[in-house]
Design goal:
The protein is built from 17 helices and 27 strands. Helix 1 runs parallel beside helix 7, helix 2 crosses helix 3 and helix 10 crosses helix 13. The N and C termini lie far apart (53 Å). It has 593 residues and is of the alpha/beta class. 31% of the residues lie in helices and 22% in strands.
């Protein structure tokens, strides 16, 4: 591994004892961290009072889980699934499966039972860890299941109550310790035969019905991505990460869960995506690393700006001027005055302890990015896909670019295929974080790689001279206008992110004249009910809602290129279906076609 002073240099002292490859496996990495920080908080939940497991306690529970799984005949190559809301139990199950040398299959808890069964069958899962709500259904053992274990204390057999089996544990964590290390945490026993190149996890991407695609990620994929991303982002054992997004999703799994335990930081599990609950958790836990999706950051920012506006136009004007000045100083001199200037505003918004906000899972408006940085929060965004473990780019805090999704991380080779006049084309990548392939789908796997072994992301973008990536859209969402211009809907949708009245927007092409077969642009908009139908107040009449939406579209149309302008607006009565990371399921929308 290159470099003498890299964030992963400390691994050298463990090579040859705790691991022998280029990168440790995930169980080897967890053992290393427990050896370094046995008494630091590891997994925490507020339920409603704080419950925390230290690294030593977490390791004991993980090993107990692993030994129980081994007693069921689970071993190398066995598939064990985990599905449930974010919790320490979910994390213990995930790691326990890997410690038992098996392959973990994390499944979206919001799927219907029949869809989960489809995934269990596809991945040939024999044992399932499941939360209370779906436990009774799965104890009927559909889809070839043999054993069902509970993530909730309200159902048995509960993960923390699994009986101890003899000969299963890899260390006696109760031994004495000195100098901050526990003697009991040792390298894995000789019976462990899993190496970094072995399959660690199967993650299912969208397409839960029919033939779902299971992305196969090795230990090397996940661990290399976790450390290489740290070249663009400093994280510390004192950090507190907030696991708010669904943890089965590659973004939260890697960027929160795995990143935090790689350095001995704490993970706080968020129970609900409700703003009030989130702000309470942020304040209680003194969260320093807040990862979310654009929709969430837009809501928090709108709440802050609404509070400022309520102080009257004069105060609002002064604060906006101070924000502009603070942002300028930060950009030019690389110092951050905003944290002090706006301390009371950040305190009120429960963001005063937050060191870094990271946005992923979709494009973020540069205006939102800019405002957070002006307020004194180091705000960055990254880019990646489940197939790339997922991080490929990350904006370094000390040299960020508002319109970019970040600088390419080390060991990623990125190229742009068939670039257009502005250098934009399909993004293709090579690197240690690129997946092993799709589970039992050799043809689909072959289709997403170029002849020379680059993974085709399906995203379109361009690179600047400093290797920062700029996204323009998804290849399959491309609209081709009458003038032969390529329009990416995501670029237009981004322009609406700061308008509170817009609950959801989907921009797409429609055929205005079948004879010409060229596309015009339409926007499907679901008005924000919090603005137009606040609880306890009469709803705004539909004509007024439509009038205001059209005003916003007209404003945006004036600021974008002529060939990008929206020609038709459809105001929806019901919200569009979304994924768990709050992206609209574009191809599920049938309105107006």
């Amino acid at each position: 591994m290159a470099g003498t002073h890299t964030p992963w240099s400390f691994l050298e002292e463990y090579r040859g004892t705790f691991f022998s490859g280029e990168w440790p496996t995930l169980p080897e990495l967890f053992r290393i961290t427990t050896h370094r920080f046995p008494d630091r908080p590891c997994f925490t939940v507020y339920d409603p009072d704080r419950i925390t497991l230290t690294y030593r306690q977490a390791l004991e529970r993980i090993e107990r889980t692993a030994s129980f799984l081994r007693s069921l005949g689970i071993g190398k190559g066995s598939k064990v699934a985990v599905t449930g809301s974010n919790s320490p139990e979910w994390a213990i199950a995930y790691l326990g499966i890997l410690f038992a040398q098996a392959v973990v299959v994390p499944i979206d808890y919001q799927l219907k039972n029949s869809e989960i069964e489809n995934l269990l069958r596809t991945a040939e899962v024999k044992v399932l860890f499941v939360d209370e709500e779906k436990f009774d259904h799965f104890t009927q053992k559909p889809a070839g299941l043999e054993t069902v274990l509970s993530l909730s204390p309200h159902r048995a057999p509960y993960i923390y109550d699994l009986p101890e089996r003899t000969g299963g544990t890899a260390s006696d964590s109760s031994e004495g310790r000195s100098g901050g290390h526990i003697h009991g945490v040792t390298a894995a026993p000789p019976s462990d035969t899993v190496s970094e190149s072995d399959l660690a996890a199967i993650l299912f991407t969208s397409g839960t019905t029919g033939h779902p695609k299971g992305v196969m990620l090795s230990h090397r994929n996940l661990v290399s991505d976790c450390f290489l991303a740290q070249a663009n982002l400093n994280i510390y054992p004192t950090d507190v990460f907030y696991a708010l997004l669904p943890i089965h999703h590659s973004y939260c799994m890697l960027a929160v869960f795995i990143e935090s335990f790689s350095v001995g930081a704490e993970t706080v599990f968020g129970k609900r995506l409700a703003i009030k609950q989130i702000l309470s958790d942020l304040k209680e836990a003194k969260v320093t690393m807040f990862l979310g999706v654009p929709l969430l950051f837009n809501k928090v920012l709108n709440g802050i700006l609404r509070g400022v506006k309520a102080k009257g136009p004069l105060v609002y004007g002064i604060i906006r001027f101070l924000m502009w000045k603070s942002g300028l100083i930060k950009k030019i001199f690389h110092v951050n005055p905003g944290k002090k200037i706006f301390h009371s505003i950040l305190e009120k918004a429960s963001l005063s302890s937050v060191r870094i906000c990271i946005s992923g899972g979709g494009p973020l408006s540069p205006a939102v990015f800019r405002k957070y940085n002006q307020l004194g929060i180091d705000f960055v965004q990254g880019y990646g896909l489940t197939e790339t473990s997922p991080i490929l780019t990350l904006n370094p805090v000390e040299h960020y670019k508002e319109r970019s999704v970040g600088k390419v991380i080390p060991q990623v080779e990125m190229k742009i295929l068939d670039p257009d006049e502005r250098g934009a084309g399909e993004i293709v990548v090579k690197g240690p974080m690129v997946m092993m392939g799709y589970y039992k789908l050799p043809e689909e796997t072959k289709a997403v790689f170029t002849e020379d072994g680059f993974f085709k992301t399906g995203d379109v973008g361009y690179l600047d001279r400093e290797n920062y990536l700029y996204l323009t859209g998804r290849k399959k969402n491309l609209i081709v206008t009458e003038g032969g211009k390529n329009v990416y809907p995501e670029e237009i949708e981004d322009a609406f992110q700061l308008y509170e009245e817009i609950g959801q927007i989907l921009v797409r092409g429609f055929i205005a004249d079948p004879a010409l077969n060229s596309e015009e642009i339409e926007a499907l908009i679901y008005p924000n009910p919090e603005v137009f139908a606040p609880s306890g107040q009469p709803a705004v009449p539909k004509e007024q809602v439509e009038h205001r939406i059209q005003e916003i579209v007209d404003t945006v149309n004036r600021d974008i290129l002529p060939y990008q302008r929206i020609k038709r607006v459809i105001v929806l009565d019901d919200p569009m279906e979304m994924t768990t990371t709050k992206k609209i399921k574009r191809h599920a929308v049938k309105v107006g076609t």
